[in-house]
Amino acid sequence: MSNVIVMTHPLIKHKITMLRDERTGTNEFRKLTDEIAMLMGYEALSDLKTREVEIKTPIEDTVQPLLDGKKPAIVPILRAGLGMVGGLLALLPSAKVGHIGMCRDEKTHKPHTYYCKLPTFIEERLVLVVDPMLATGGSLIDAVNEIKSRGGKTIKCMCIIASPEGVSAFTEAHPDVQLYIGAVDRCLNENAYICPGLGDAGDRIFGTK
Ligand code: PRP
Ligand code: URA
To answer: What total number of domains does the chain contain?
Structure first.
């Protein structure tokens, strides 16, 4: 479990509780998802590399840090992962954005990949894969397989709510990948939904049913 980082910040906990509440409507749900992604991103990006540059302040010459290396890639798993992109772009406005389209079969709960478009030079970028829900883990495992098969090397994942089953499956499949989680819930139900969870994240973000 050493590559699993569960958020402890009270602001994140508070916002996740509001997100879970069935009375939270689409507009508020989107705002909260964005804010949680930004707060989690702040933690997940704390080891970004910097380089020293010379600048002049109005007072004097000085050497100060700026972000170094290729721009990170944010890769949401469609659809629900899209809800986390805005919050991360607020932190990293110049980041590249890739997309992986996946959906779970309602009966088997197995993921199906229907789209993948990643930024160029993916092997040189930090890749931040985002999806609010880690249920069986199948979607995130396949998404990371896809990114690795296209050359991705430095990968971090961010999920707002996870099941214990999903965390175990993911860490077994990708022990080298850091997994940032907002909250780890009790279990999966017979439909492979997270309990207590928040319901269907995609439907709540996009107002569909
Ligand atoms: C949800 C969620 C994850 C996946 C998690 O997406 O956003 O991608 O299920 O389940 P897993 O861990 O068991 O694979 P869904 O397939 O419902 O698609 P959507 O985002 O288009 O609603
Ligand atoms: N996908 C969701 O949106 N919610 C769950 O609880 C499980 C999968």
So the answer is: 1
From 106, 131, 204, the mutation candidate for ligand 1 (largest count of ligand atoms within 8 A of CB) is 131
Strand stretches in 48-186, DSSP E = 50-56, 61-67, 73-78, 96-97, 99-104, 111-117, 126-130, 133-134, 154-162, 178-184
Confidence of residue 209 (pLDDT cuts 50, 70, 90): confident
Testing ligand 2's pocket by substitution, the residue of 103, 106, 200, 204 carrying the most ligand atoms inside 8 A of its CB is 200
Atom of ligand 1 minimally distant from the CA of 137? 12
Q: What is the pTM of this model?
A: 0.97
Per-residue pLDDT tens for 16-58?
999 999 999 999 999 999 999 999 999 999 999 999 999 999 9
Residue nearest to atom 4 of ligand 2 (CA): 200
Question: Three-state DSSP class for 73?
Answer: strand
CATH of the domain at 80: 3.40.50.2020
For residue 24, the enclosing domain spans 4-44+73-206
